[in-house]
Design brief:
Elements (H helix, E strand, L loop, with lengths): L6 H19 L4 H8 L3 H14 L2 E7 L8 E6 L5 E7 L4 E6 L5 E7 L7 H17 L7 E8 L2 E2 L6 E3 L11 H4 L6 E5 H12 L6 E6 L3 E7 L2 E2 L31 H4 L1 H4 L6 H9 L5 H22 L4 E4 L8 H14 L9 E3 L6 H16 L5
Parallel strand pairs: 3-6, 6-9, 10-13, 13-14
Antiparallel strand pairs: 1-2, 3-4, 4-5, 7-8, 10-11, 11-12
Helix pairs in contact: 1-3, 2-3, 6-12, 10-11
Length: 378
């Protein structure tokens, strides 16, 4: 049965249209809204007054017009009307970020806390989150929710860790955190989180294979702007594809996995910082170029193997992305050309457009997206 179009439906639709028009254009006049949305001036005026009173939008200076007389008042949304928080749980630290409705960073902090599957750990992390929230002056009712990015596979309802070998957290429930926090919370696989960030900054992106090359290797398959989870929840876990019969031991218990050859852990020496490695590399310090070429060759092997399965764009992201140069993509492509049976154009290799804080921001973004999709009634 078709839903009837009632006056209240029209009213709410107009409100949503006006808010999203302001959101997308960032600074507009009443005239702009009325003309572009083909709404009457009284309808626009009434909605603007209502949303301004609620704190959703604000007057933001004036706009020059082609008409003689007073300049038109400009309106913009209030970016921090609602806030999302993203938290990345790692073995030795916890990263957290607060973002506004445009996905922009409000503040970010990193705490050194050793992961333990114990009540004291969960309480300590939540105490830090509340500390962080209070330090930047965010009211509880302004927080949409908290996304916890995990180095783990997550259940479809985002409430349970299905496979968490890195942190030994298989079976962990989100309740371990929510019992100490008065906000909606959810888990997200860290590679999916990074891919969510990529989709946010790339509205033209439809299909891609996102490689999150961070301390550990991860991936996400993007199809029609959706992230595929697979029938059993472990789609795109390419890190456990075995590339060698022998080699380094992977945390999954097998040897020679892609993880052991194409992660940042595989590239860096123990206790070596990425900044130090790439500083030495770009200065042509002896030995670093060889290590880098060996790493890129393994990455090329991995990309070629995956590209033969899924002929789409490949985005290199994660912690590695800020350090990649175009010349590195050329090197990878040349290696792929030597391996593949096809004449491949280089246009399928891309560097992430969001190389900084992509995992933590991506963990918070679903709450921002849900708010924008379901703008509250007046």
């Amino acid at each position: 049965m078709k839903q009837s179009i009632t006056p209240n439906f029209i009213k709410q639709n107009n409100r949503s249209l006006i808010y999203h028009y302001i959101y997308q254009n960032q600074k507009v006049s009443q005239q702009d809204i009325s003309y572009d949305l083909r709404l009457s001036r009284p309808t626009v005026t009434t909605n603007l007054a209502s949303m301004e009173q609620e704190g959703l939008i604000q007057k933001n200076g004036q706009i020059d017009t082609e008409f003689v007389g007073r300049k038109a008042a400009a309106y913009s949304i209030v970016p921090d009307y609602r806030i999302g928080i993203g938290v990345e749980i790692l073995k030795k630290e916890v990263k957290m970020i607060a973002i506004n409705l445009y996905g922009e960073k409000i503040d970010r902090l990193v705490y050194e806390i050793l992961y333990e599957n114990k009540e004291a750990y969960f309480q300590a992390v939540c105490d830090k989150i509340l500390e962080f929230k209070n330090a930047i002056g965010i009211a509880d009712d302004h927080i949409l929710g908290i996304g916890f990015a995990m180095q783990a596979l997550i259940s479809p309802d985002k409430q349970t860790v299905l496979y968490g070998k890195i942190l030994s957290c298989t079976g962990l429930k989100i309740h371990s955190f929510t019992k100490y926090l008065p906000y909606p919370c959810s888990f997200v696989h860290d590679a999916d989180s990074a891919a969510i960030s990529e989709l946010w900054v790339s509205p033209e992106l439809e299909n891609a294979f996102y490689l999150s090359v961070s301390k550990h290797l991860g991936a996400a398959i993007i199809s029609k702007r959706q992230i595929l989870s697979g029938k059993h929840g472990h789609s795109s876990t390419i890190e456990h594809i075995q590339m060698q019969d022998s080699g380094k031991l992977c945390y999954c218990g097998k040897y020679g996995c892609m993880e052991t050859l194409c992660s940042m852990t595989a590239l860096l020496a123990e206790n070596e910082a990425p900044e130090d490695f790439f500083q030495n590399l770009r200065k042509n310090t002896p030995g670093f170029q060889t290590r880098w070429e060996d790493f890129l060759t393994n990455l090329a092997r991995a990309v070629n193997m995956l590209h033969l399965v899924y002929d789409t764009d490949f985005i290199l992201g994660g912690y590695l992305a800020p350090y990649l140069h175009q010349e590195d993509l050329v090197y990878i492509h040349e290696k792929i050309q030597q391996m593949t049976p096809f004449a491949e154009a280089q246009d399928f290799l891309l560097i992430s457009k969001m190389p900084k804080h992509n995992i933590t921001i991506g963990a918070a973004l679903p709450y921002i997206q849900a708010f924008l999709h379901g703008l509250p009634d007046s």
